[in-house]
């Protein structure tokens, strides 16, 4: 009887270790995915900024790119086309700036771009190799504006 219980306990421990390993792998994968999404948002923001500097009008049916970019300029008025928008917070840990930039990224998420009015050479190019729908939508947005 005791041997059976010890055997059951060992089986449960092995199962628990497997579940813990799986959860850990999923957490790492989730963190990587979230990091990639943040990088894509930063790239999209940089593209919007580049378009503004070059006078390229992006047709939107919801939201205002210029309003969002003005808010971004208020965070860092010294930002120019050579700045690295991929860096969310500086090395000093400027948390307020980082949070403000995240709010701007959220506003950009709510923009709706009218791709139908873009010239043929600027339209969305699909990426079948991108694994996640969120990544595909961010990448297609980035590529369509390049």
Total number of domains:
1
Q: Report the helical percentage.
A: 55-70%
Count of extended strands: 2
Strand-residue fraction?
under 5%
**Widest beta sheet: strand line-up:** 1-2
Uncertain runs: 79-90, 124-131, 142-146
Number of distinct helices: 4
**CA-atom Rg in angstroms:** 22 Å
Q: Note the overall shape.
A: elongated
Mean pLDDT: 77
Secondary-structure element series: HEHHEH
Largest sheet report: 2 strands, antiparallel
Oligomeric status of the shown chains? single chain
Distance between the termini: 70 Å
Question: What structural class should be given to the helix and strand makeup?
Answer: mainly alpha
What does this structure look like?
With 146 residues, the chain is mainly alpha-helical. The chain has one domain (2-114). Helix content is 62%, strand content 3%. It has helices spanning 2-54, 65-75, 95-109, 133-144; strands at 60-62, 112-113. It has a two-stranded antiparallel sheet with strand order 1-2. Helix 1 packs parallel to helix 4 and helix 2 packs antiparallel against helix 3 (95-109). The longest helix is centred in the first third of the chain and has 53 residues, at 2-54. The N and C termini lie far apart (70 Å). Residues 79-90, 124-131 and 142-146 have low confidence and may be disordered.
């Amino acid at each position: 009887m005791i041997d059976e219980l010890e055997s059951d306990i060992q089986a449960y421990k092995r199962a628990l270790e497997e579940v813990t390993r799986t959860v850990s792998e999923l957490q790492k994968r989730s963190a990587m995915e979230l990091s990639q999404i943040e990088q894509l948002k930063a790239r999209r923001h940089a593209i919007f900024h580049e378009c503004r500097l070059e006078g390229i009008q992006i047709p939107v049916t919801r939201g205002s790119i210029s309003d969002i970019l003005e808010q971004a300029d208020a965070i860092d008025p010294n930002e120019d086309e050579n700045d690295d928008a991929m860096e969310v917070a500086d090395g000093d840990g400027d948390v307020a700036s980082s949070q403000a930039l995240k709010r701007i990224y959220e506003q950009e998420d709510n923009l709706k771009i009218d791709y139908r009015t873009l010239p043929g050479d600027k339209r969305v190019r699909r990426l079948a190799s991108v694994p996640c729908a969120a990544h595909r939508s961010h990448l297609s947005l980035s590529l369509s504006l390049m």
